[in-house]
Amino acid sequence: MPKLNGARSRRSRSRKRQFGETKPNYGLLVKKEWEDFLKTDGPRIKEEDPEFYYHLIGKKLPKKYQDPFRGTKPTTADIIPVKIREKTVDEIKREKEKADQEQQIKKAKDDKFIKQQQVDMKEKQRKEYNRITFEKQQKLVHWCNAHDQGNYRNIHSDEYRSKTEKKYEYY
Asked: Domain for residue 54, yes or no?
């Protein structure tokens, strides 16, 4: 039985598929217009105002268009030349010696720290090995009563003798 109110039925007024007519897809039409606009006017907008262009397409502004000094670039007239004092040979030697001493102190501290780490690691490994060994030995050690007979038999007992000696000779 055909549905009377379905979109594909003959009596449906919402779509007349069998006659070649469909509802217009407005979203698709808007998307096509938007793509055409970006194809025609997009390059011009990108050249003139890249920030606005990337805002239109919904993407983040690339780093090459980002300007950290926006609107604050000095002109050539505003730039004041600065004289930099050059260091003498003695100052350079002192700085180099100071840097060498600092480097040696840092290296000594690093070596001391590494040695301490190695000692701590060995101590930790030793304690772990002792703990594991103790757990293995602990399985074998248990409380017992010295007056109780354990899992063994005295070979001199009557019970042992009666079970092991043959009572009868058949041949």
From this structure: yes
Is 70 part of any domain?
Answer: no
16 pairs with which residues across the strands? 21
State the sign of the Cα–Cα–Cα–Cα dihedral 45, 48, 49, 54: positive
Give me the count of residues in the chain.
171
Q: What is the pLDDT of residues 20-33, one digit of tens each?
A: 566 778 999 999 99
| DSSP codes, 60-127 | PPPGGG--TTTT-PPPTTT------PPPPHHHHHHHHHHHHHHHHHHHHHHHHHHHHHHHHHHHHHHH
Look at residue 116 and tell me if it is in a domain: yes
Is residue 132 in some structural domain?
yes
Q: Please indicate whether residue 52 or residue 8 has the higher confidence score (pLDDT).
A: 52
Residue pair 38/45 in contact by the 8 Å Cβ criterion: no
Amino acid identity, residue 79?
Answer: I
What is the C-alpha to C-alpha distance for residues 96 and 84, in angstroms, rounded to an integer? 20
Range of the structural domain that residue 132 is part of: 89-140
pTM: 0.32
Distance of CA 110 to the CA centre of its chain: 28
